UniProtKB/TrEMBL annotation:
<feature type="binding site">
    <location>
        <position position="85"/>
    </location>
    <ligand>
        <name>substrate</name>
    </ligand>
</feature>
<dbReference type="GO" id="GO:0009423">
    <property type="term" value="P:chorismate biosynthetic process"/>
</dbReference>
<dbReference type="InterPro" id="IPR036441">
    <property type="entry name" value="DHquinase_II_sf"/>
</dbReference>
<feature type="site" description="Transition state stabilizer">
    <location>
        <position position="17"/>
    </location>
</feature>
<comment type="function">
    <text>Catalyzes a trans-dehydration via an enolate intermediate.</text>
</comment>
<dbReference type="GO" id="GO:0008652">
    <property type="term" value="P:amino acid biosynthetic process"/>
</dbReference>
<dbReference type="GO" id="GO:0019631">
    <property type="term" value="P:quinate catabolic process"/>
</dbReference>
<comment type="subunit">
    <text>Homododecamer.</text>
</comment>
<dbReference type="Pfam" id="PF01220">
    <property type="entry name" value="DHquinase_II"/>
</dbReference>
<keyword id="KW-0057">Aromatic amino acid biosynthesis</keyword>
<feature type="active site" description="Proton donor">
    <location>
        <position position="98"/>
    </location>
</feature>
<feature type="binding site">
    <location>
        <position position="109"/>
    </location>
    <ligand>
        <name>substrate</name>
    </ligand>
</feature>
<feature type="active site" description="Proton acceptor">
    <location>
        <position position="22"/>
    </location>
</feature>
<dbReference type="GO" id="GO:0003855">
    <property type="term" value="F:3-dehydroquinate dehydratase activity"/>
</dbReference>
<keyword id="KW-0028">Amino-acid biosynthesis</keyword>
<keyword id="KW-0456">Lyase</keyword>
<feature type="binding site">
    <location>
        <position position="78"/>
    </location>
    <ligand>
        <name>substrate</name>
    </ligand>
</feature>
Length: 152
């Protein structure tokens, strides 16, 4: 199972940037936590402050063997139709994640132009949002089973 994790604008500053909102973990620590939590997942991590670079990255996996994408677009969430279109070009599940609960914040953060074209969206759990995002892609790949282990 291969998952691409994309971190958008200003997330390179995690740990130093508004820690009361985004927590104390650095981006590297979040990435390492994912690697530890999901030893069977092959991760690629990508961070950029440039919208076009994120579009290029998403375009680059159109015909690849990736099974899903977890993306925190940062502020691009709220206005990037280019990232939205790049997500639409993918056939694999894309999950949007946010450290903060964007619905409890300023008006302009309460709307995502990307979430409606994603498989789902997780916000407000700090670094756990990333873990839940990866978990959802892993679970989507597994066959559904009842509590006796039989397939539904
Ligand atoms: C964020 C929320 C965005 O509104 C903000 O611009 C960020 C981080 C989050 O993870 O909570 O950069 O995506």
């Amino acid at each position: 199972m291969k998952i691409l994790v994309i971190h958008g604008a200003n997330l390179n500053l995690l740990g130093k940037r508004e820690p009361e909102i985004y927590g104390n973990m650095t981006l590297e620590q979040i990435n390492q936590t994912l690697i530890k939590e999901f030893p069977n997942v092959e991760f690629e991590f990508f961070q950029s402050n440039h919208e076009g670079e994120i579009v290029d990255k998403l375009n680059s996996i159109v015909d690849s063997d990736f099974n899903g994408v977890v993306i925190n677009p940062g502020a691009f969430t709220h206005y990037s139709y280019a990232i939205r279109d790049a997500v639409l070009a993918l056939k694999i599940p894309v999950v949007e994640v946010h450290l903060s609960n964007i619905y409890a914040r300023e008006e302009f953060r309460r709307h995502s132009v990307i979430a409606p074209v994603c498989k789902g969206h997780i916000a407000g759990f700090g670094h756990l949002s990333y873990i839940l995002g990866v978990e959802s892609i892993v679970k989507l790949k597994e066959p559904e089973r009842d509590d006796k282990g039989s397939d539904f």
